[in-house]
Amino acid sequence: MTRDQFRFLERLRVRWAEIDAQQIVFNGHYLMYFDTALAGYWRRLALPYHETMRALEGDLYVRKATLEYFSSARYDDVIDVGVRCERVGHSSIQFECAVFKQATLLVSGTLIYVFADPVSQTSSRVPSALRDWLTGFETGCSMLTLRLDRWPALEADARRVRTQVFIEEQSVAQDMEWDAVDADAVHAVAYNAMGMPLGTGRGFFDASGAYRIGRMAVIASMRGSGVGRMILDALIENGKTRGAARVGLSAQTSALSFYRRAGFSEQGEVYEDASIPHIEMTRAIT
User: Fold this and answer.
1) What is the pLDDT of residues 225-280, one digit of tens each?
2) Is 81 left (phi over 0), alpha (psi -120 to 50) or beta?
3) CA distances (Å), 99 to each of 37, 73, 94, 185, in order?
4) By the 8 A CB rule, do 65 and 107 touch?
5) Which of 85, 100, 125, 239 lies at a 20 to 30 A Cα distance from 66?
């Protein structure tokens, strides 16, 4: 089993609490690593786990787990945990998993889940949609689609995301969240295979004629999955097609690393907006 057999790999660092008296990772923790990586696998599929299972009217229950040990991870090792959907049966789904330290295989495993009714926990047929999403991802399909349009076309979905992120999660007042800019801006909304809106943002020219991006929001369960970068890149490209040479935005300081990776740099001092620390950032559009 090699790294290139996995489209998805989750990077972890071994913690002190995970080693045993032999100063190696306790054997049972590898199941925890697999479970952690599976959560990342669902994010890569752009499928928030609980919302997805609720929509499918079922849930996944472990039927069998087997592990094979080849070598040991130690404290502070950086490991990559691969997850691959190997087979979708009538009511079961088989995942192959592996832990690598660089190119070295440490542990491999097989996890078999059964799709079942969450109340009776009796097995039922794997929904065809779930089957298609899993096989599609493993064959290289993109799991996200992006719509770029004006406010009337995307208002309902953009409002849904922004309400969840800004109003409910960050306690931004409604009269501060909704403004006249929405009507003039181009909006981007990212959707998963279920048609569920996962993130949004807007691009517009301000009163000085500068192109700006704002109201960037991704639902909590999908952060770190590439949704935000997909939206940001689309809005930057929108500015480019409309003749902008630079793009500016007001970034929450907690998101600085995200914008730095996209080529933005800070301008000026930190200030508060809606009681949240922000800083101005800008980059050239090339």
Assistant:
1) 999 999 999 999 999 999 999 999 999 999 999 999 999 999 999 999 999 999 99
2) beta
3) 10, 9, 17, 46
4) no
5) 125
Give span(s): CATH 3.40.630.30, the chain.
145-284
What does the alpha-carbon distance between residue 129 and residue 55 come to, in Å, rounded to a whole number?
11
Count of CB atoms within 10 A of residue 115's CB?
Answer: 23
Domain with CATH 3.10.129.10 in the chain: 3-138
Q: What is the CATH number of domain 3-138?
A: 3.10.129.10
Q: Which residues 6+ apart lie within 8 Å of 241 measured at CB?
A: none
pLDDT tens-place string over residues 165-186: 999 999 999 999 999 999 999 9
Give all strands of the β-sheet with 276-284 in edge-to-edge order. Answer: 145-150, 186-191, 197-205, 211-218, 246-252, 276-284, 265-273
- Which residues are CB-contacts of 31 (< 8 A; sequence separation ≥ 6)? 65, 67, 109
Instruction: Specify the CATH class of 145-284 in words.
Output: alpha beta
